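Q: How would the structure tokens look for this protein?
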Amino acid sequence: MLLVRLLAAAMGDGTLDLVTVDGKHHRIGSGLPKLTLRLHDRAVERDLLINPRLRFGEAYMDGRLSVEGGSIYDLLSMLMSGSEVQGALGRAVETLSPLLRRAQQYNPMRRSRQNVEHHYNLSRQFYELFLDRDMQYSCAYFTEPGLSLDDAQEAKKRHIAAKLLLVPGMRVLDIGCGWGGMALYLARHSGARVTGITLSSEQLEVAKRRAEEAGLADRVTFELRDYREFATAHPAAFDRIVSVGMFEHVGVPHYRNYFDAVRDMLNDDGVALVHAIGRLEGPGATNPWIRKYIFPGGYSPALSEVLPVIERSGLFTTDLEVLRMHYAETLRHWRSRFDARRDEAKALYDERFCRMWEFYLVGAELAFRLQGHMVFQVQVARTLGAVPLTRDYMVNAERHLADASAGIEATVGTGRKLRPAHTPESAT
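A: Here is the predicted structure in token form.
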């Protein structure tokens, strides 16, 4: 049976009992765990043979297959720990991937807005079911084992703020600001004036309301704008730029446009920090199920696809950090919280949507645990002297921000107002 051979090629450790619609059992593998994959119609077998990376998730969403003896997490963990399985159509598509990828990631402004609306215009009530209290929808930073999701997301904001070398009064741009949490944090803890831009009307409405409620509307503003059109109107307008979880939506064909826009919007001493999902194992292609149902137009790049573009843009890479398992832990928290409130999600949408979201959270977590996904933070600047020569300033800034969040008054950085980063003192 061809499907048995296909699944056997994908299997890691464990035993899988495949039960077809006619009741026949096929044993695959050996040892623990022991799971049963039950097919509920004859077409599923054909679909999985043709394009398993797309059709498996669709069949799970539609209830055309089910898992017994464990969860979909257990099954995908078993299958994703083996070799990659493509199927006949999947192999053909991957062969053409370098040609198709440009079309899949072609994201002009109108299409970018449609892609963002597909995912981020889901209701705030839905995202509140599983995100932290600040609505951070990106990788948290687990500074120690057992850290809560709320504390890890707070640590992420501290970590990023520390890399931005903020001084009161600085002008900061947040590209892809989400529901406004990062912009509000930077304004509250550094005294900066922050502008956030997003392509999601739902996020914009929430972010504006949060700024008003926090009493920060005089220092934090939000706009529904694409980074490309925004850059044209704001040359050299910002001291700092931050972008968290947005670069994955840019697309390789637009990387040069993106970094050119960042360069053009920074002033001469400006610094930018880009936080994004990446690949440890080199360039690849977005999973077709993720591309169709979750992030149309999205792609997580290898650093080999990003750093050369930064070099050609005239920006300097001044710091680079790779966060390996932090997003796996973040997704574990999201998955657990979503499971606990699944009935509420079903009341907002329906069971098929819940199965889709469950499959997304499970598959994403396992991509970080088993398939070489990671998060990178790249700091770039227009001049080599824009940041100190050592990373001590980051450690000091994080310590002071932690003290401030605990109720101790502190200034971001060294406990005093930082001098401009390009001065001789800052380079010692």
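The longest strand covers residues 266-279.

Residues 108 and 414 are 42 Å apart (CA to CA).

Upvote if useful.
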